[in-house]
Amino acid sequence: MRKNLKFEVVRTSMAILIALAVALIIIFLTSNEPGVALKEFVVGPIDSLRHFGNVIELAIPLMFTGLAVSIMFKAQQFNLGAEGGFFIGGVAAMVVAIKVSLPVVAHPLVAILFGGILGAIVVSIPAFMKVRWNATELVSSLMLNYIALFIGAYLLNYHFRDPNSGAIASYKIPKTAKLMVILDGTRIHAGLIIVAVMVVLCYYFLYRTKWGYEIRITGENKRFAEYSGINTAKVIILSQVFGGFIAGMGGSIEVLGLYRRFTWQTLPGYGWDGIIVAILARNNPLYVPIGAIFLAYLRIGADLMSRGSDVQSEVVAIIQGVIIVFIVAESFLSKYKHKLVYKEAKKLSVKGVK
């Protein structure tokens, strides 16, 4: 187990280093001021409290979708509905914030809970379709993302749009529904505390409960799980319901934490980014914050670089692509893994002889 963990850490680290090296080469080849570009890219996100705050603000939704995707992928369910679940969670937060009057503390909690429930419903539909009709969750979840988008667009345009806003935007979100800022000088909000709690709960759920064990066993070997008496159909649905709930919570928290009005007219993209975070974290909830902060750091650094130098922010897309290619490539560093396995087997054989 430790050898496998060591290998995955080494492989992920190597993929990141190679991707960063490719980025450096591109910067030096395309920029007339590579020193300035590198400074903005590497140091920019931490050169002020405001920039550091931007990193954490961006990492919060990435953590939610990263957790959601990790749980679904842990069961080998390639449901891409975290994007739709995140979006519909934001829509739900808008509805509760504007239409329901509640006290200060209860208002955001009810909105987040409602967002989580709607997110669970959206993301679980592909799970039910797979269990009932063996429909591929990959395709059905992609289609459902756009159904969620058009439902949200309809509600925004025909029921919640403020005609006096001067843009396609909802009525203002009441202050009673807003999440409080927890660090002055930034927009870091209470969602950071909530997502930290969710990281711990998700890890406990996956590695310390019967349901989590069933999810992991089903993901590793579905036939063995069925032979062991595990109801894999229930596990498939459970993993995606739980993942959808977390994604919906993330969308609600994003809207209540950073927006004065709901303005999403397209899918925000955090669900797709959550896949990258889950891949970096190897589907382990404890590593999701690391992957999310790393990706957020790259994004903020690239944005600052594009504004302060002649290098465009698309460099981050190249880094992401290289990282994913190397991490998902089974043969990458496979010889190193074989050496680790051989050494471990040799040690065990020597102990057995003694």
UniProtKB/TrEMBL annotation:
<feature type="transmembrane region" description="Helical">
    <location>
        <begin position="51"/>
        <end position="73"/>
    </location>
</feature>
<feature type="transmembrane region" description="Helical">
    <location>
        <begin position="12"/>
        <end position="31"/>
    </location>
</feature>
<dbReference type="GO" id="GO:0022857">
    <property type="term" value="F:transmembrane transporter activity"/>
</dbReference>
<feature type="transmembrane region" description="Helical">
    <location>
        <begin position="108"/>
        <end position="129"/>
    </location>
</feature>
<keyword id="KW-1003">Cell membrane</keyword>
<keyword id="KW-0472">Membrane</keyword>
<keyword id="KW-0812">Transmembrane</keyword>
<protein>
    <submittedName>
        <fullName>ABC transporter permease</fullName>
    </submittedName>
</protein>
<keyword id="KW-1133">Transmembrane helix</keyword>
<dbReference type="GO" id="GO:0005886">
    <property type="term" value="C:plasma membrane"/>
</dbReference>
<feature type="transmembrane region" description="Helical">
    <location>
        <begin position="188"/>
        <end position="206"/>
    </location>
</feature>
<feature type="transmembrane region" description="Helical">
    <location>
        <begin position="314"/>
        <end position="333"/>
    </location>
</feature>
<feature type="transmembrane region" description="Helical">
    <location>
        <begin position="138"/>
        <end position="156"/>
    </location>
</feature>
<feature type="transmembrane region" description="Helical">
    <location>
        <begin position="85"/>
        <end position="102"/>
    </location>
</feature>
<dbReference type="Pfam" id="PF02653">
    <property type="entry name" value="BPD_transp_2"/>
</dbReference>
<feature type="transmembrane region" description="Helical">
    <location>
        <begin position="286"/>
        <end position="302"/>
    </location>
</feature>
<dbReference type="InterPro" id="IPR001851">
    <property type="entry name" value="ABC_transp_permease"/>
</dbReference>
